[in-house]
Design a protein that fits this description.
The complex is a heterodimer. By secondary structure, chain A is of the alpha+beta class. Chain A has 12 helices and 20 strands. In chain A, the strands form 6 sheets. In chain A, strands 3, 4, 5, 6 and 7 form a 5-stranded antiparallel beta sheet that branches. In chain A, strands 8-9-2-19 form a 4-stranded antiparallel beta sheet. Chain A is elongated, with a radius of gyration of 35 Å.
Chain lengths: 530, 307
């Protein structure tokens, strides 16, 4: 055996073994029991375009999160000032970053100013100023805090969405943050994408508000502290949607963050599903107080500004459990229970991208991709065998090695195979023999110059080396850029392409060369089949 | 076996014809890109925003009938395309119409269920892209294209001298433009996969050019006295068979994708096919003649400087 052949052959064999090792979980339907410990267990990941599923990009309306926290500050302040008997005209959020406090007298302004300074040290406080005859103070959230709040909102939204999806039951979901305020959600193999999308996108802000029966909903003169919300109901037989308007207090008495549990129950009397909710101790206390103080009045159960029901409080309810009934089917009730358990999103989210691929199309794509690959291989193999005879077969072996290595590498790196990724592999079948073509053509030229097979071979590989490096590096540059900027299927293409190019360098410069070296080493070869 | 024996074709001499053809292609490509910029081309919804759906019906669903069913239910601005194999229908609704419909995917399904209850269907895929994502993708893509072209130019400039760098860059641009031209003329959809194909070909077509340039450089070193014209022609003829064979193998692979790879990557593989063909042509007829022109001009300048 010629010098330097040993390590090259060992390397080739080791890589083949490794590739098959990593490919075993993909190729074998059920792994034997002894296959454990450090042995790889992951299959090649299939992209959503191949296995079917939904890819969503959500945009969190982070501005709303800041506004929400300012609304809480405003409500808090109202309570504090009331409890201290400081009279005020109005406390409200102005714009997206300020809370304004309007007072009747200069005297109270000083007390309030002091109180604000102590209570909200992080906020910027304006000096008292005159505003239409009243004294006004403005509390402004500073930019850093606002930024923090936004950041936390995205983080919370991510956690909440993860919770919801976990409870909905999707295997191997991907939920990750992208950029400043985007969240990417991938739900492979999901059967009812629309339901999942509704579940994820719901803000699920649950509020209990008192109904103002003193104001008719048709009135054009709704008081400042009240608002009109609607109850939507769908007639189960005709599908017609009807809306019942309610005038409710703007201020909510109890909110969904005081819940500990929500479960679907079936009403034994009407056989209607409803959602049973449990409050935590604070919530239970509040609920007890509210119901005690308002027996005989109506309160509205509001989710995301839609009234679900507006029952009359018949008696004081202690113990901290309540129920939400409405026009539920079993599915909608169970989805509502999930979002209530997982908690509300800190800010509304908008779905800005939704790519859903049905399982049948995915299967079809895999099938056709493999078919195209197979036909590509056969065509190239035939061509090479006819055109370069035995040497062509060596190149073909190199190409097959290439494909095995590439699949092995994809499995080992946990890369995702997409349909364009399959296309890249098919393309690489054509490209991988290219390096050998460049070498073979060179060898033919050298042979024509009258060199011996051995000398021609060495010269061919030497002179072709730089050309091959050049051509691979240029392809690698574009593949790297595609990887950096591409998403989903395109990224899959870039992964397959760049791995393939690197592997191809190895097989063409080491893999096929060693075969020729072995063949010519005996010194008996007078002619090269090329 | 050999496809070609020893050839002696005057490639450089045909440069005027080649330049004329290439100019037309390039101009078409530039028009295509301008149309894309104006939003007048057939843009995929990944760039323009909107909704795309693929439905698979039980029975054939001609476009005219589908359009009628959708029109009746208020979906008027819609782009339909039929895939006869498997009774499939592609539906594209642009971003404004999508926004007007609210939930366009639901509206389309409801329309077909109502108008054609006799022809049930399954939704094979739905893609809804908000306008902000489209803008972001367009921006990202432009950056990607710019960076990869820059990377390639830098690499070539480092490996070869300046004139070769220009030749290779022009040839690469020419290939990209040709792909845009083909898609524009045939009114095929410009989407992310198409851009992927363009960048792939940008890398690939250089391979071809590099093979030719390597030989030219080698011959230039060997033969310092000969006329540029002759050295270039000789070099191209020497590597002609390998230029053709390497393209052929990739072409075979891309062709099998085109014919058997299914509708999802049909246009993508078409773009690759065009790119492979043009890439081969350009390394012979665009890249090399440009270098000859530049070299001759430099030589002439040297001559006048000396005199």
């Amino acid at each position: 055996m010629p010098k330097g052949t040993g390590w090259r052959i060992s390397l080739i064999c080791i890589f083949v073994l490794l590739s098959f090792l990593y490919l075993t979980p993909t190729l074998v339907a059920k792994l034997p029991t002894w296959w454990s410990g450090l042995l790889p267990k992951d299959k090649i990941h299939l992209g959503l375009d191949l296995q079917g599923g939904t890819h969503l990009v959500l945009e969190v309306d982070t501005q709303k999160a800041v506004e929400g926290s300012l609304d809480i500050v405003a409500t808090d302040l109202e309570d504090t000032l009331n409890s201290k008997n400081l009279r005020f005209k109005r406390i409200s959020r102005i714009g997206s970053d300020q809370v304004s406090v309007q007072l009747y007298e200069k005297g109270t302004a000083e007390d309030v100013q002091k109180l604000l300074k102590d209570k909200y040290p992080g906020y910027e406080l304006s000096p008292p100023h005159d505003e239409g005859g009243f004294v006004a103070l403005n509390l402004r959230i500073n930019d850093k805090d606002a930024q923090d709040r936004k950041d936390k909102a995205v983080q919370q939204a991510l956690e909440t969405i993860r919770n919801r999806i976990d409870q909905f039951g999707v295997s191997e979901p991907v939920i990750q943050r992208e950029g400043v305020n985007h969240i990417v959600v991938q739900l492979p193999g999901i059967k009812d994408p629309q339901r999942a999308i509704d579940l994820i996108g719901k803000t699920a802000r649950l509020e209990f508000k008192m109904v103002r029966e003193d104001v008719p909903p048709t009135s054009t003169n709704i008081p400042d502290d009240a608002e009109v919300l609607k109850e939507k109901s769908v007639d189960p037989t005709t599908g017609a949607v009807s809306e019942i308007p309610f005038v409710v207090q703007k201020k909510s008495l109890i909110t969904g963050d005081l819940l500990t549990d929500a479960q679907v129950r079936i009403d034994s009397q009407f056989n209607q599903p409803y959602v049973a909710i449990e409050f935590n101790s604070l919530g239970a206390k509040l609920f007890d107080q509210v119901t005690a103080a308002n027996v005989g009045k109506r309160f509205a159960i509001v989710l995301d500004n839609n009234v679900y029901s507006a029952p009359v409080i018949r008696e004081r309810i202690s113990g901290g459990s309540a129920q939400i009934s409405g026009n539920f089917t079993e599915k909608t009730a169970s989805d509502l229970a999930i979002v209530l358990r997982a908690g509300a999103l800190p800010a509304p989210v908008k779905i800005i991208q939704n790519v859903t691929v049905g399982p049948s199309l995915g299967e079809d794509s895999i099938h056709k991709g493999l078919m195209a690959g197979l036909i590509g291989v056969v065509l190239v193999v035939l061509f090479m065998a006819v055109y370069y005879r035995l040497s062509g077969m060596v190149a073909n072996v190199g190409m097959v090695l290439n494909v095995i290595y590439l699949m092995g590498a994809l499995a080992a790196l946990g890369a995702t195979l997409t349909l364009p990724g399959i296309a890249a592999i098919v393309l690489l079948i054509g490209m991988s023999v290219d390096s050998n073509v460049i070498i073979f053509e060179r060898i033919r030229e050298e042979l024509k110059l009258g060199k011996t097979p051995k000398a021609a071979l060495d010269a061919g590989y030497d002179k072709a080396f730089l050309t091959i490096m050049d051509s691979h590096i240029t392809t690698l540059i574009t593949a790297a850029v595609l990887f950096q900027f591409g998403t989903g299927p395109v990224k899959g293409f870039a992964v397959s392409l760049s791995l393939g190019v690197i592997i191809n360098l190895f097989t063409s410069l080491i893999g096929t060369k060693v075969t020729f070296d072995l063949f010519l080493a005996k010194g008996t070869a007078k002619k090269l089949s090329i | 076996m050999e496809l070609l024996g020893k050839t002696n074709i005057d490639f450089i001499g045909k440069r005027n014809i080649a330049f004329a053809i290439s100019s037309i292609i390039a101009i078409l490509g530039i028009i295509g890109i301008i149309q894309i910029g104006r939003g007048a081309a057939n843009m995929g919804i990944d760039f323009s925003g909107g909704t795309a759906m693929q439905l698979k019906f039980d029975k054939p669903m001609p476009i005219a009938e589908a359009r009628k069913a959708l029109h009746k239910n208020g979906i008027t601005k819609v782009d339909l395309q039929e895939i006869t194999e498997g009774n499939k229908l592609l539906i594209k609704i642009d971003k404004n119409a999508s926004a007007a419909l609210g939930k366009p995917a639901d509206a389309v399904q409801a329309a077909f269920k109502k108008e054609r209850p006799d022809n049930p269907f399954v939704v094979e895929s739905t893609t809804e892209i908000g306008p902000s994502i489209g803008d972001k993708l367009r921006k990202d893509t432009l950056v990607a294209v710019a960076i990869s072209l820059l990377g390639i130019i830098l690499y070539i400039a480092w490996r070869f001298d300046f004139k070769f760098g220009i030749g290779a860059t022009v040839a690469t641009l020419h290939d990209c433009l040709a792909m845009f031209a083909a898609f524009y003329v045939m009114n095929k959809e410009i989407n992310l996969l198409f851009i992927t194909a363009v960048l792939t070909i940008a890398g690939y077509s250089l391979t071809d050019t590099v093979v030719v340039f390597d030989r030219i450089r080698e011959n230039l070193h060997k033969n310092l006295k000969g006329a540029m014209h002759t050295i270039f022609n000789q070099s191209i003829n020497e590597v002609l068979s390998r230029t053709i064979v390497t393209s052929l193998t990739v072409f075979l692979a891309a062709a099998s994708l085109f014919f058997f790879g299914g509708e999802v990557i049909h246009d993508f593989s078409f773009a690759l096919l065009v790119g492979v063909l043009v890439g081969t042509y350009s390394s012979v007829f665009v890249a090399s003649p440009i270098v000859v022109l530049l070299e001759n001009r430099a030589l002439a300048k040297q001559g006048t400087d000396k005199a």
